[in-house]
Amino acid sequence: MAKGNRKRSNQDKPKAVVVKDIELRPITQQEAQQLFQGIINVSNQYAQLRKQYEEYTAIIESLKHRREDLAKGKIPMPIQMPLGKNKYYMENDKQVILKELDDEIRILTNALKGVQGQLQNHKDAYVESGLALREFCDRKFRRFKPNNVYAKGCSPRKEEKVLFEGELDEMLKDEEKMKEFKEAKEKAVKENDKQE
User: Which domains are present in the chain?
Assistant: First the structure.
C-alpha cells in the first residue's frame, strides 16, 4: 500500500448547518386563549360586581329616602307590608314600619360591604391580568421597532418623504399656519380633557 492512500479514522467532520432562529414567532392559539380569555373572564366578573355594587347602592339610597319621608309624615298611613308570598297586610304603626326599613337597610348595607370586598379583589385581579398581558407583549415585541410609521400598503417612496418634509418646513415658517395649528392644538387638548 502506498503511503497516503489510506483513510484515517479521525477525519474532520463536516460542520453542522446552523439554522438561523426566526426572530419573531407567531402567537399560538394556546397563548392567545390563555392571555386574552383570562383577561376577558376577569373583566366580565369585575363588570358584574360593579353593576351589583351600583344596584345595591341605589336601593339603599332609595330605602333611606323612603324611610326619611315616612318619618317626616310625607307618606300617608296605612302601608302595605309583606306577609308572605304574594300576601300583604295593612300596617298603621309607624314604628313597626321604620324598624322594618332599618332592618332592610342594615341587611343590604352588610351585603354591600361583601360586594365591595369582592369588587376590590376582582379589580386587583383585572389589573394583574392586564399587566401580565402587557409583560407578555413587552417580552415578545420589545426588541422590534417598525421600519416606518405608515399604514400597511402605504410605503411612500423617498421622493414623497422629502416632499412631505418640505411642505412641513414651509408650514412651520408661515406664522398664520402656526397660529391656526396652535389654536387647533389647544382645542384638541380641551376636548381630550373633557373626555377624561
Answer: 28-144 (1.10.287.370)
